[in-house]
Amino acid sequence: MTVSNTLPHPLAPLSEAEILRARDTILKQHGASDSLYFRCIYLNEPAKAELVPFLELEHAGKLTESTPRPPRQARVEYDVLTPSKHHHIRTVVDLKASQVVSSDTAAQKAYPSYSPEEFNDFQDACVASELFQKAMSEFALPENFKVIIDPWPYGGPDDAEDPDRYMQGLVFAVDSSKKNPDSNHYGYPIPIIPVMDWVSKKIVRVDRLATGGAEDGLEPEAKAASPKKLFQNNAPAEYVPELLDIPLRNDLKPINITQPEGASFTVHPDGLIEWQKWRFRIVFTPREAAVLHDVTYENRPIVYRLSYSELTVPYGDPRPPFHRKQAFDFGDGGIGRAANNLELGCDCLGAIHYMDSILPSPDGTPTAAKSVVCLHEQDNGILWKHTNFRTNRAVVTRNREFVVQFIATLANYEYIFAYKFDLAGGITVETRATGIVSVVSIDEGKTSKYGNVVAPGILAQNHQHIFAVRIDPAIDSYTDTQVVVEESISKKIDPKTNPYGNYYEVQRQQVDKPRWIDAEPRLNRVLKLENSTKKNSISGKNVGYKFILPSTQMLVADDDSVHARRARYAQHNMWVTGYRDGEFWVAGEFTNQSRKETDGVDDMVRRGDWFTDEAPNGQDQESKGKKSTPVLWGIFGLTHNPRVEDWPVMPVEIHQMHLRPADFFTFNPALDVPSTKNAASVLVPCCSNGEASKATEQDKPLSHLQGSGKEIDAQAAGASVTNGKTE
Amino acid sequence: MTVSNTLPHPLAPLSEAEILRARDTILKQHGASDSLYFRCIYLNEPAKAELVPFLELEHAGKLTESTPRPPRQARVEYDVLTPSKHHHIRTVVDLKASQVVSSDTAAQKAYPSYSPEEFNDFQDACVASELFQKAMSEFALPENFKVIIDPWPYGGPDDAEDPDRYMQGLVFAVDSSKKNPDSNHYGYPIPIIPVMDWVSKKIVRVDRLATGGAEDGLEPEAKAASPKKLFQNNAPAEYVPELLDIPLRNDLKPINITQPEGASFTVHPDGLIEWQKWRFRIVFTPREAAVLHDVTYENRPIVYRLSYSELTVPYGDPRPPFHRKQAFDFGDGGIGRAANNLELGCDCLGAIHYMDSILPSPDGTPTAAKSVVCLHEQDNGILWKHTNFRTNRAVVTRNREFVVQFIATLANYEYIFAYKFDLAGGITVETRATGIVSVVSIDEGKTSKYGNVVAPGILAQNHQHIFAVRIDPAIDSYTDTQVVVEESISKKIDPKTNPYGNYYEVQRQQVDKPRWIDAEPRLNRVLKLENSTKKNSISGKNVGYKFILPSTQMLVADDDSVHARRARYAQHNMWVTGYRDGEFWVAGEFTNQSRKETDGVDDMVRRGDWFTDEAPNGQDQESKGKKSTPVLWGIFGLTHNPRVEDWPVMPVEIHQMHLRPADFFTFNPALDVPSTKNAASVLVPCCSNGEASKATEQDKPLSHLQGSGKEIDAQAAGASVTNGKTE
What we know:
2 copies of one chain form a homodimer.
Chain A: H1 16-29, E1 35-43, H2 48-59, E2 73-81, E3 86-94, E4 99-105, H3 116-127, H4 130-136, E5 139-142, E6 145-153, E7 166-175, E8 192-197, E9 202-208, E10 228-229, E11 256-258, E12 265-267, E13 272-275, E14 278-285, E15 289-297, E16 300-314, E17 326-328, H5 329-333, E18 351-360, E19 366-388, E20 393-410, E21 413-422, E22 427-435, E23 439-441, E24 451-455, E25 458-461, E26 463-473, E27 481-490, E28 504-511, E29 515-517, E30 526-535, E31 542-548, H6 562-566, E32 574-578, H7 601-607, E33 630-640, E34 650-662, E35 682-683, E36 712-713, E37 720-722
Parallel strand pairs in A: 5-10
Antiparallel strand pairs in A: 1-2, 2-3, 3-4, 6-7, 7-8, 8-9, 12-13, 13-14, 14-15, 15-16, 16-17, 16-26, 18-19, 19-20, 20-21, 21-22, 22-34, 23-25, 24-25, 26-33, 27-28, 27-30, 29-32, 30-31, 31-34, 32-33
């Protein structure tokens, strides 16, 4: 498949040398007097129009050394720091010429995401702040408790304010007498939120928080005459095993998953992955973590690019300043930057490959991001089965999956993201939400309609997590994909067409221009991604894939709220927009402290690109769109009204969306999966405590179902016989 | 847990001796002249009022030999055969006294389910039928093709007809030249449906089928002058490996799942299962297969009885007689009777326990149903994780599940049912639909709006599968469960209560009398099963479980159709009804050839039992209900418009519903799960083809996330210190 070629594949991640070359190019642009802060240096993906001809040649096996290739480019995002102002600059560097190809400065109030290093500045600013010390003086902490602060993005500014770039912090205490740096501070929230000016690095304000119950109003409590004693009844919220005050289970016997003959996948150094009939490339980006490119099955393209785009987490507590708890975990932080270094035998079981990546330090030098993606195979039960009830012969195959997994930590919270490929041509996109729910103080004995008391003194606020997945489809072609909305519609009894009332109509509507589409399970509404010209040779229908989305609640915040204005994407389950190079951000590129979604999916709809030969007639004629190809955005989420069981660390909440072939193949693509009996399985007898007997062939089961196995000779049945002597 | 006791537990399945005693008791009731046909002999479950006191003593550890116990009873269902009529009789036999306690004869047109043995009668009747032979004479089959018939229930009779008990058959041919009894006949449908009178065992009619395309109307084609040549272009639809004309994959390397220290569960001979903190009993019934009883966690009851209740499969092809393709797989057939004999290493991997059951032969003697349920543990990814971003220390636990699985074959089709228990107090009820889709003939080159052409000459008709799960809850008590509908409701901006618009209200409405409730993901509607009196000591809320249902399309058939009248249950996602002993059937006991749902969930709602101290006021005051406790029915399904990929055997379509604790516990019940690193996992290096290296400790990853780890001394931060010297 891969051509022996000294040049990197156009989708290969930047090498260390390339990152350094990009950095040097930028440094040269600026004088020695400019102080630069590098945020990201990563592959600038080729324009689709340039990459597609290359991919087509690649899949046709026609690549040569002289095949034209898209220029190799780096995207470098950095700040120029001056005492009074920070300019955020986005550049594209041509790596061959070591030249800046394009450069622009972000608008006045468009702020890039925070880097992990900037989080530390916040705590330093608090320590140095008289305002902060004054606020803290209102509280008395138990002996040996130390203060610890989780920096957060500021959320959306109120309409009345016009702040420069701010950062806020949630303040906690930790019991240092435990002498364990992993003692959980989230069990001890302190009811203030300091706000820092990000340029001056000064605390400009400390907001006091309400700590009352359901009927205590929205205002913070009045300042007490003497320091309020905190944590009088709070309980430890430990989760690291050595600090637990309950014994660990000792009766969970190990499950080992082994592949004695090795794994069935191949990882190439340039990010190309091969597993079974699947082939795709992984590019790790600072914002999206693992992005899948050029996903093909038996060399037929299915998805040009598959990625998570955004995740907003708005909180439902109306008491100011809690309304500013609305994070955009991709745009404000970055999932790649927050990706965990995964561990063998913990995050994945079996035979695992770990992928590393490279992220820049603030000075632009590459640093290793080790084991940020894991790849492995797993068994997921039965894939298909049929038992012939006449002979009792069963044929069963196992549902083997290939998993691309990465995990991000965003202060208190964890997300486990996975792309799963199966043997039947399906792709599943999975999220698992876990970690520690965000909590605030609540006065003893009180309860709140804004959340749940999950431990004494601890209110876990109601909130939502709304995920967006971006699918740039390429259904059996890089250029000819169409999107169709399909519904199964009930029909009334009609003597001519539906005499008994059991008929239902499968209705199709092609999406000819950008729009949103809400989930409607009552109509079995599904989106189909189809090749607009190629027909399935069996069914005569367009070859395609079905898009199956969990039907979940969308953003509940009021339409007029700043929360909704910043996350229009989160108001509908599916969006179809027109492809343009580099548009990966459902809520816009700059979500950090945004007041509204800018150049997000809602704007892409408004500009009215179209997918047919000519712009469709209708009310959108005034739009300035252009002919394009459709990109699909799948939105799903979790309205999380916390349970007591979510404390101190929550069990995973799992969501899955699926791409499944629908007339893409000419028969079940998993028909050739062997129905091999697994020899390592053993019997557990009755009445033992798990003592497994050695694997033995089971007795031939006595069947209560054994049929007669009778067939009727066609002629005996009355039929004549064709193609034979008796015809 | 179990008392040493010579008496069987009240929920222990009947022994062979008990089955024989029940049979003998019935035989004695009848003279030698009566010809009896036994359909089922199984445990007559004790009345709840009698069982609950026993269970309460059992869980309190207070059972003794003299504890009063419910009488041990068998339920015997059998027919009395006379030449002109079959009476279906349902009796309860007291096994101690060997006496019939109750007996009643089913109403005139209430028909029990078919036994597997009766299926064979149908084919014999066809062979003997001149009508059938005449119908077959219209067709010419290729040489060596033999006829094979799948008996089906007759579906719902048309309003215009008043048939006695009928059975219909789908007719296929099989290529006997392959000399393989597992050659797939479903690839060769013959366009007739013979109808048999079930008492006389005579074919009374042979319906001819339409074979046209989208525009060819509803009538069967006119009879041709000479026999129509069938299967001129049909292709083999083989799935058994030795008949495939494509090579099997040889690059799927084995995944072995082993438990070197044995399994973590215990199976007792009377059906009691213990796994981790879970404890429950499995009773296998002819209709429901595995039923779970008395499900407890740490000895606290959660579910009194958990079972699948029904599954209807209506087809959407309006061309008569296809409208009679509507099966009720529990009521017309019986999932226990149709349960597969499961195989080690195929249907389950790892360390597996297989449960056997006993089913009666038509003469009432017990026959073994071997390995009809499998029990095993499996790993399902990460259960919870948190990484302290300051220290980079991660704590991860694995999501171990305990699975109770059974699989039923209903002629062409398979269902894989599973109950899964997890370490965090959750129960998942899962279905996987697989097997061979039901197909009919379609003329060459045509396509249809009634289904999809999945192979030349083969139309897979659009249809639905609508499952019903019955949950008889016992939330921390066998008697005090209440059901609450909870929704998360958007609120407009309001200066006093919601100044920024981010607040949403969690609204609760108690279900005080039977009703249906539709899914409404837009409102995040969930049902909560709660103890009506016990409060969670942390949150102050009622201890409870959340019921999470996939939001799927309900029955699409017209409200006035016989299909909808027979399956009112399938028109709404959730139903809550009043508990009465022995009411297990969502669509009524007798679904076979039913015209309407009788004593099903819709009738249970109409009768108006109530769940509060007094009957609620309102329009239902005239109802004749009584005070009861709520039973929950969860309905979900699959509108299956077949894909070409579903042929010849379809990859699984998976649905899951969940019961998750919601303030049932006082913290995450999986907090005590060890975060043990699995030692059997190995690294797969880059660029190898699956060659796994020996497990080695990974290098300490270079962290790009390492925080400063700084904590601030409380006094340095400005706070005073309580409980300490400085206060």
